[in-house]
Every structure is written in structure tokens, then in C-alpha cells.
Amino acid sequence: MKTPAPHLLSVSYAHQAQKQAAEAFANEHQLACQPLHKATSELTLNFTEMQLEIIDLQNKMSLCVDFVGGSLGHRKKYGGGRGQTIAKAIGLKQGKPIPSVLDATAGLGKDSYVFACLGCPVTLIERSPIIAALVKDAIERASLNIEFSEIIKSGFILHNRDALEYIQAIDKVNEPDVIYLDPMYPEKKKSASVKKNMQILQKLLGHDLDTHKVLNAALKKVKKRVVVKRPKGAPILDAEKPPTLSYESKGTRYDVYIA
Hints:
By secondary structure, this protein is an alpha/beta fold.
């Protein structure tokens, strides 16, 4: 991933206690760093005492990752377990071994966390160092929670890498059972229904243009299946490679390619 333009992203800190960590990250990624109240970029990666967050200074929105509370905590308790469409898509079945999952486009780690809560060992790949930093921060905070520490023991490993390069380097012994792809795609509407998470991510990352290449590589490096998450009604990712089967939920379709 290219470093975002200086006018788009900076690094900031809420208090002097976070200054050193903020400056270290800024220097590593060649970004400007200043106290939050002096930030002038569109987005700022803000270091606080409690969490790491991205703030959209123009639209007054913020984004962080929380694997214990909020919507993800609620999803863990009331998400429907193995009855969820996403669980069926990755091949979770009663009496069958629990699959290992490589989430090659992990983003904020939401689907990765669902897989982990279902008992799957998960490897998360995120090529943006900014988004990876948010997820890493969330993992470190959640690791203090007993329930999440069990997830870590089962396997919940984050790599800040390019998905295509990572997949191409997988050897036969370490092939995952499932490779999961959730490419960024343009939203059809600009409305309240476009969640702030997506608004900030699209501003920061744009859209994925190489996912068809990742799909082709994944099909050669997976034991059981590749799953591609798509909006319901959207075309398949690669017109020359129709999926083996698909599962649909209210607004989402999971295209499954059996290895």
C-alpha cells in the first residue's frame, strides 16, 4: 500500500503521554505528527490513553476496533452461531473438523472475529498499515479479557502484508482450509445507510482493484474452499470463474469455490 497523501492522513495524540508512540508510528510511515487539536488533515490516526482511532476531521466521525464490547461483542452473544450464513459458507458442519481460515482482506477484522468465535483458527491479512494498527491495538486491549484470550490461544494472528504476496508464498504444508475474500466495492448510495466505518475506509483506502488476482492465487493455495463475500445482486468477482455454489443472506452473497 502506498502511504496516503499528506493532506489526507496524519498522526496525532490526545495527550503528551501518547506523544512518543505517535511520533514513532508517524516516522515509520512518513506522516506528519502533531497534537490532536492542531491536526489539519482530512483524517488523523489518533493515539489516546484508551485506544487507537481514526478521526475524520471533516465529517466529525471516528473509527476504532473493539472485539469485546459494542457490535462485535453483541454479535458474539447473539449472532446465531453455526446457523449463520457465513458459517455455512466456510463449510462449518456438525461432526466435521473445524476449518482454519485465512482472511486475506481482513479490514477491521469483523468477519475474522466471527470465524474465531465459531472456533476457527484465523490468520488475518491486512495490507494497510493504518488499518492493521487499529486491529493490532484492538487485539492487545481484548487480550486482557478472559474470553478473548481463549480466541488468541486457538489462533488469531494478524499480518500487515499484501494478500497476493502472502498467498503466493504459502507452501503446501501450511495451506489453510479456507481462504476468505471480502473486497472493498463502491457503495451505490450516499446516505445514512452507508456506515461511518465504510465512509472512512473508502476515503482512506479506495477500492480493491486486484482481488481477481488474489482469487486466482487463492484457488491454488487452499485445501478446501475459497469464499468471496459480495453484495447481493452484484456480479461474480471473475466472470471466467463461476462459483461452485452460493449462499445468500439479507444483503450479502457468499460465492464458494470448492478446491
